[in-house]
């Protein structure tokens, strides 16, 4: 087996968080035959629900891999309910990917903490790095420590984000360039042209 995990569970607070954080890696792993589950903790309305499905379709990840929670946008908790919600989708052989617990957004922090609680027995745990957008901030200052080569998937990732139509006016004007540059700069220590980068919390080989 190439990897020591047989399923990947990505957990994002809002629609588009997962695609921005690790959409290309998920698309790559799904194409390699790994089981993927994408858990979106909150979704304001029907329109955004369809944006999620359309964005993942570009990544070749089917609707059956997506779970949408009913937590309130802005009020996602870290409690028994949020932990139990994630708990049923993870096991020891899961690779969990989620937000960093020092993120400036309370929903991102609580989603990260809930994922950590649910993933206490998981052997592999990564957190995506923050996007280089204004207003999206983190108090995590350590450099990324885990990289996934996404040379064949960067275009799909960028295209998938264009399907979050209601959010495009909230992205900076040059968002595509910023994301591409981030993936390019972070690849400097790898043998790839583009990477998605993560904080490594736990990884077992
Ligand atoms: Zn978010």
Rough outline: globular
| CATH class type | Alpha Beta
Distinct ligands, ions and cofactors found in the model: zinc ion
Describe the strand arrangement of the main beta sheet, using strand numbers.
3-2-1-4-5-7-6
Helix content: 25-40%
Main sheet specs: 7 strands, mixed
Q: Which whole number gives the mean pLDDT? A: 94
Helix tally equals 6
Radius of gyration: 15 Å
Secondary-structure element order, as H and E?
EHEHEHEHEEHHE
Number of domains: 1
CATH architecture: 3-Layer(aba) Sandwich
Task: Decide which structural class fits the backbone.
Answer: alpha/beta
Structure description:
- By secondary structure, the protein is α/β, with parallel strands linked by helices.
- The chain has a single domain, classed as LmbE-like (Rossmann fold, 3-Layer(aba) Sandwich), CATH 3.40.50.
- It is 33% helix and 18% strand.
- It has 6 helices and 7 strands.
- Strands 3-2-1-4-5-7-6 form a 7-stranded mixed beta sheet, sandwiched between helices.
- The longest helix has 15 residues.
- Bound molecules: zinc ion.
- The site of zinc ion has 5 residues, from loops.
Short description, anyone?
By secondary structure, this protein is α/β, with parallel strands linked by helices. It is built from 6 helices and 7 strands, in the order E-H-E-H-E-H-E-H-E-E-H-H-E. Helix content is 33%, strand content 18%.
């Amino acid at each position: 087996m190439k990897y020591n995990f047989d399923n990947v569970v990505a957990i994002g607070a809002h629609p588009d968080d997962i695609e921005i954080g690790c959409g290309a890696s998920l698309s790559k792993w799904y194409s390699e035959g790994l089981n993927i589950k994408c858990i979106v903790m909150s979704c304001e309305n029907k329109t955004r629900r369809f944006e999620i499905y359309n964005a993942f379709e570009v990544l070749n990840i089917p609707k059956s891999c997506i779970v949408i929670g009913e937590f309130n946008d802005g009020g996602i908790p870290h409690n028994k309910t949020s932990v139990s919600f994630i708990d049923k989708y993870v096991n020891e052989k899961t690779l969990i990917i989620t937000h960093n617990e020092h993120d400036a957004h309370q929903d991102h922090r609580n989603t990260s903490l809930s994922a950590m609680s649910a993933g206490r027995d998981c052997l592999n745990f990564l957190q995506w790095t923050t996007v280089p957008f204004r207003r999206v901030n983190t108090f995590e200052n350590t450099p990324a420590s885990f990289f996934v080569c996404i040379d064949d998937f960067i275009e799909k990732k960028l295209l998938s984000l264009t399907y979050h139509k209601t959010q495009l006016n909230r992205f900076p004007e040059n968002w595509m360039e910023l994301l591409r540059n981030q993936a390019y700069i972070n690849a400097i220590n790898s043998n790839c042209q583009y990477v998605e980068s993560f904080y490594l919390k736990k990884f077992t080989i």
